[in-house]
Structures are given as structure tokens and as C-alpha cells.
Target: Thioredoxin domain-containing protein
Amino acid sequence: MQEIVTLLLFVVAARQWCYTYASDVIVVTDKNFSDVAKSQKFFMLMFSVDWCTGCRYAAPEYEYAARELKLHNPPIPSYKVNGMTEHQLVQQFHVDSYPSVFMHNNGRYVSYEGDLSGPDLVRKMEKEAEPYFKWVNDLAVIESYRGIDESLLLGLFTSTDHPLIQKFERSLHAANPRVKALASTAVPVREFFNVTAGITSILLLQPTRFAKNFASTIVNLTKYYTNESVFAGEITSHILRESRPLIGLYSKQVAGIYEDVKDQLICLLPVSTSVSKNRLHANAALAKQLRERVVDYMRDKVRWVIADELEYPKFVESFQNQENPADDMLAACKWNDKTYQMSGEKLSMKTLKAFVTKTLIQLEMDAVKTKN
Model:
């Protein structure tokens, strides 16, 4: 009997040893975490404690994710922290519940809020590790990479390890997938955009559908990247702001850039051109009228968007005054959570110009009241 007990104890101990040896999860501490974090561009980090029931359930799922991520090209390491002993890291990450998982991307941490299942952890971490931009050397690729209603952030660097690339990548995190991005070091590409040799330039190429010319769609954002006091999150706001053209056409592809717009006046022209035999011509004609008789006068104070109310009713409705919606809305403007409507039987550029001018004056008066 004693031999059987001894054998069982040996088997249990062997299993525990094998489990520890086979684990792809690496333990980190207050002392070595800083060096570990600097050495890896991507990794996953879990805080756990022995007394936590949820941690015991999460442990095998995290192990599964660690094995899968180790097979990633390049491998993505998975770390764990003992919340009972590593107090500095607990404070650094503001951990107040266990288990807590964070995903690291090039110096930035994202708190994981999803289901703690192995496959979900893998999918989220792999998505986090996806590149936000591609390197290209051909102008034709740049021209074909986006549609005429989409924006493109283009980084023209002097080398593939330029110090601004990290900031460029970080600024794209919140903008992705709303704004596409490419980067290039190719001389022909740089020359096409008139970028001098030895100079780095980061350009935002706006949608071209209703633009006067190609040059008018290029916005230089380099100054935000070279300014050390401007952080990536602030640059993201500039990217999204400039991604909205003076006159744009709403579609599923560009819906993201019109979501949660802050401190920028967006004015809508609802149309029903989807029932027209030549909707492209109808939209272009409206945009031409708008540009010649209203937009040039307003300059950069307003961003205009044409949206088909039959195809995108929810977007059009978001511009309506919910307390007093208008059935005969010809135009509407939105500033943060405030909406302004213009009603009538037929759209007139003269009336539209007066309506938007009045809206701008009202916003200026509101700003003065708020300041005082």
C-alpha cells in the first residue's frame, strides 16, 4: 500500500513539474519587468493572485493563449504577475481586480475587457499586433490603396527606422480602421509629393471626389509629429479632423470618420439620389453648387457631407432635433451634441448660406457665454 501511495505522489509531482516546465507563460517581477517591457514590442500580461477563483479558471485559458501566441510570426510572449508580491506593478497598472489582462503594443497598454477564453485572448492580441500601416515603393499602389471617398495618411521617411515612425504608428492606433495609412522611403514617391531629400514629411491625403484639384486635398501634419509636446492621442484628433473633406459623400466606407465628432461643425445635405438614373452626376452637381456659392465663403469653418437619406436614414436622423424633428429638413448642422435644422420645400444656396452663417454666429455667442 505504501508503495502505491509513493508512486501516486511521484506521478502528481511529475505532472506538476512537467506543467511548470512546459508552461509558455513567463513570470515577471517588479525588478525585471522594465527590462522585459523594453525588449518586446508586443506582449500579453496577466495579473493574478492565489486566492482568486476567477484566476484559477483563467489560468489554463491564458496558458492556451500563450502557446498559440508563441507560434505567431514573430512570437508574442505572455507574462504573468503575482499580485500578492509585486506591489509596484500592481500600482503602476492600477490593478483593483483579478485576473486583469493587459496587451502591450509598442509602449502602449490596452486593458483587455473581453471574455477570458484562450481563443478570444489570441484573437485580440493578434489584432493588437497587426501593423497599422504598410510600406510601399510604388505610386500606383498608393493611388489604388484607397477609394475616392477615403483618406490616407502617408508617411514619407528617410529610413525604415526613423525615430518618428513609432509616433506615427501610435497616432494610428485610435484612428484605425477609420483612416488607412502607408509609408515610403522611395525617391520617386517623395519627389511626386515634393518632399526634399533628407526631409521627413507626414501627409494626410483627403478624399478627392469633390475636390477642386489634387493639391487641395493634401494636408501636411508633420509639425505635430516633430513637436515633442504634442502626443500621439492629440495627433489622432488632427488626423480624424482633417480626414473629413470640405465636401464629402457619406458611405459605409467613411462612416467612422463622422462618428463622435468633437468641436467641428458638420453640415449635412440629405438627398435621395439613389433613385436617380445618374446619381453620380446629381451628387457632383450639388457639390459644385455648394462649393462655388457657399463653401468658398465659409472656408474651413464647416465640413459638409452629402448623404442619401434612403440608404443611410440613421445617419441623417442623427442630425435632427430629437425633441422637434422636421419632416421637411433640407439641411442640418451638428456641433458636438447640438443640432441645427433648416426646413423648407426646395433647397436654395442663398438660404443655405444664411442658415449656416447664423449657426456659426450662434456658436460663437455660445462660446463667449461659456467662457464668461
Q: What stands out?
A: The first strand starts at residue 25 and ends at 27.
